[in-house]
């Protein structure tokens, strides 16, 4: 068993996290993740109202008595969701761990901490990680450029970003972006992280609440099968390469405004595709880690395999490289 600062501080069996994912982070995925000994996060804003979130939290508890959390992502918006009401629903439901992400989380961190909730903040830069640490968060999830979703605008890959963060951040660190197997977990630990945070890899599991066509696409795709959209709007997002993503990139290259792509990238359109199975209907989030996805296991099979692979790498492959005898020049 691999014990780290993260597993000790958060009370989970394995140093593996299923981060919040819009439309995917529901009880159907989170409960099996918890049962497998990892830490799963419901995605608050997938639920249409705070009241619906309370019911979804209850659905997880009907299926597991293990630890799980809720993700609350704060993004600038013309008509923002009622974040304070979602926050109150999380606290009053007795959830003990929250993953925050996005814009100016101080108000949320303060409220969660006052209620005794542990906070993991997702960020894409060391400077943001240090800012979150000053706010009082309990752990950092640091997203490298390989990640699905929003990789930030600095374009720093995990091989540099993770140890750079580990050099300066004092609270436990989760490595995120490009992780999908035991090699990644062992590498993350070697780079100074205390665990890994995976999104795309958990989407390609039997329990993930998306159409099987998307899971098959992730198996078929390689590490090149993503597009970076919204670069010209300074809000970069990594999504799976498909007809819609290619259209968005082409429009951006023409220098056209966001209004010209808005209809193509609507969240409702993407969700319709996840339900219908049409992988070209809208944009859908996936990372470069697709190149490491070769099957669609159960969540338990995936978690156990990752841990066993990492343990074998650490205890056997790497240990065998330490020569008991001095090597002569």
TrEMBL record:
Enzyme class: oxidoreductase
Gene Ontology molecular function, alphabetical: nitronate monooxygenase activity
SUPFAM superfamilies linked to this entry: Inosine monophosphate dehydrogenase (IMPDH) (SSF51412)
Membrane-spanning residues: none
The keyword Oxidoreductase is assigned to this record: yes
E.C. numbers: 1.13.12.16
Keyword list, A-Z: Flavoprotein, FMN, Monooxygenase, Oxidoreductase
Name assigned to this protein: Nitronate monooxygenase
Organism: Sphingomonas kyeonggiensis
């Amino acid at each position: 068993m691999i014990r780290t600062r993260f597993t000790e501080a958060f009370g989970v069996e394995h140093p593996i996290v299923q981060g919040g994912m819009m439309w995917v982070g529901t009880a159907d995925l989170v409960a099996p993740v918890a049962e497998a000994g990892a830490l799963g996060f419901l995605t608050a804003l997938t639920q249409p109202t705070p009241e619906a979130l309370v019911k979804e939290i209850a659905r997880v508890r009907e299926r597991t008595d293990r630890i799980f959390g809720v993700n609350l992502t704060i993004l600038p918006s013309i008509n923002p969701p009622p974040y304070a009401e979602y926050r109150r629903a999380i606290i009053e439901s007795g959830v003990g761990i929250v993953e925050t992400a996005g814009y100016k989380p101080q108000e949320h961190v303060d409220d969660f901490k006052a209620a005794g909730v542990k906070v993991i903040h997702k960020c894409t830069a060391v400077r943001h990680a240090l800012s979150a640490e000053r706010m009082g968060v309990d752990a950092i999830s640091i997203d490298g450029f390989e990640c699905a979703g929003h990789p930030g605008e600095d374009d720093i890959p995990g091989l540099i970003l993770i140890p750079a963060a580990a050099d300066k951040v004092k609270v436990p660190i989760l490595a995120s972006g490009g992780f999908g197997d035991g090699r990644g977990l062992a590498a993350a630990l070697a780079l100074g992280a205390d665990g890994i945070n995976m999104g795309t890899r958990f989407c390609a599991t039997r329990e993930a609440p998306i159409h099987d066509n998307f899971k098959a696409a992730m198996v078929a795709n390689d590490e090149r099968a993503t597009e970076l959209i919204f670069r010209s709007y300074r809000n970069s997002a990594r999504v799976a390469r498909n007809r819609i993503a290619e259209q968005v990139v082409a429009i951006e290259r023409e220098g056209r405004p966001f209004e010209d792509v808005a209809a193509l990238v609507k969240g409702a359109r993407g969700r319709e595709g996840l339900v219908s199975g049409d992988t070209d209907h809208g944009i859908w989030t996936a990372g470069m880690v697709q190149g490491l996805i070769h099957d669609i296991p159960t969540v338990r099979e995936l978690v156990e395999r990752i841990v066993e692979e990492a343990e074998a790498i650490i205890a056997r492959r790497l240990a065998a490289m330490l020569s008991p005898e001095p090597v002569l020049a």
